[in-house]
Specification:
Strand order of the largest sheet: 10-9-8-7-6-3-12-11
Helix content: 25-40%
Number of domains: 3
CATH class of the largest domain: Alpha Beta
Shape: globular
Strand content: 15-25%
Number of strands: 17
CATH architecture of the largest domain: Alpha-Beta Barrel
Largest sheet: 8 strands, parallel
Distance between the termini: 70 Å
Amino acid sequence: MALTGIQIFKLLPKTNCKECGVPTCLAFAMNLASGKAELDSCPYVSDEAREKLAEASAPPIRPVVLGAGVRKATVGGETVLYRHEKTFFNPTALAATITSDTAEADVAAKIKGWNALQFERVGLNLRPELVALKDASGDAAAFAKLAKLIAETSEFNLILMSESPDVLKAGAEACAFKRPLLYAATESTVDALGALAKEMDLPLAVKADSVEALVPLTTKLTEMGLKDLVLDAGSRDVKKSLDDQVAIRRAALKDLNRAVGFPTITFPCEMASNLDMETLIAGQFIAKYGSIVVLSDFSGDSLFPLLLERLNIYTDPQRPMTVTEGIFEINNPDENSPVMVTTNFALTYFIVSGEIEASRVPAWLLIKDSEGLSVLTAWAAGKFSGDDVGMFVKKSGIMDKVKHTELIIPGYAAAIAGDVEEELPGWTITVGPREAAHLPGFLRGK
C-alpha cells in the first residue's frame, strides 16, 4: 500500500538541504507521495528508508521497456492525467502489422519501405519502433521464421501476436535478442504465457473483455513474479476503447490501483476499414492514453502527422522546444554566402530557415543556444547579448567556412550590434529585418 506524505517524511533525513530541488524535506515527501518526484533525487536517504519507500517512489504506472537496439522504447511510467500538470514522459510506441502467411520477399519489401520512413524535426529523428507479427495459420515454424527475418534484417522490435502459447514460444525463441512483447495472455492462457514470459524475461500483454476482468489476470501474473505487463481491455469500439483508456489511467493515478498500473496497447487497425480512419483513431489514442498503437500499415502521409503529434504531446510544456546549437547550411552555401545568426527557439529556427530556403539564396544560419527563448525575449533576458553572440561566432567554426567577415543579426536584436563588433574586430555587423517574412527580399538585395 502506498505511503502518505507524512509517512514518507518520517523516513527522510530531514536536512532541508534543497538538493532535491524543493525547499524542504516535507515538500519533497509530498511530491514523492503524489508521484511528482523520484526517490533518487534525495542524496541522503538511508538504505533502510530507501527499501521502505520503494513502493511510494515507484511510478503509479510501471515503465516497461520494449525491444532492444536503436529503436528500443520505454512505455508507461506516467504520473499525471493531464499534460499541463507536469509532462507525459514516455511517448506512444507505433507499430504496423505483418501476418505470418506473408511471403518473405513481400516482408523484406515492406521492411525496406518502413525503414525509410524517418523524419528530421527539431534536431530529432522521428520514426516508428515496432512491427506486430500476427499469427495467421497456427504454423509455429512459419511464424518463427518470419520473426527471425524481421529481427535480423531491420532495426524494428517486435510484438508477437498469437492465441497459441506454442506459436508464441517458437517466435520468441527465434528473436529473443530483440526482447519482443508477447501478445496476449488471456484467462485460458495466463498460466502458460506467464511461465513463458518469466522464463525468457519478456514483457507480456494481458487481454480481457473489460478493465475489471484485467484485474485478476494482472494480479495472478504479478504474484508469479512478472512486472513488465501491458494491458488490453479488449474493446474494439472506438468510444468504449477510449473510455477504457481513461478508466485505466484514472484508476492507476487517482486510486493508486496497482493491478492496472501498467501501459496499454490499442488497435486502430481493428477499429477501421482504411488507413485514413485508423490514423484518426491513432491520433486519439496518442493523446489519451495509448502506450502502444498498432496500425495495419505505415505510410508517410499517415505516419508523419502521428509522429509530429506524438512529439508535441510528449514535449514538456514547461520547456520550449529547441534546436541544437551549431551551423546550419541552407541552399548549399559556399565561402561567399551570407552568415546569419538567431536563437535556438524551434519556432524561430523553422520560420527563419523556411524563409531563407524560399529565397533560394545560399546562406549559413548560426543557431545560438538561448535556452529556447525567441530573439526579443532572449535579448531582454540576457541570453542573446552582443558579447555572447560574438564569442559564439568565434567558437562556431564559421570562420573556417567563409572568406568574408559580415554577420547579419536579427532586427529585434539591433541593440547588440555594437557589442558584437567589439567582440569581433574587423567584422561588419549588419542588422537584418525584424520580420522573417522580409528575409527573402533582404537577401536577394544584398
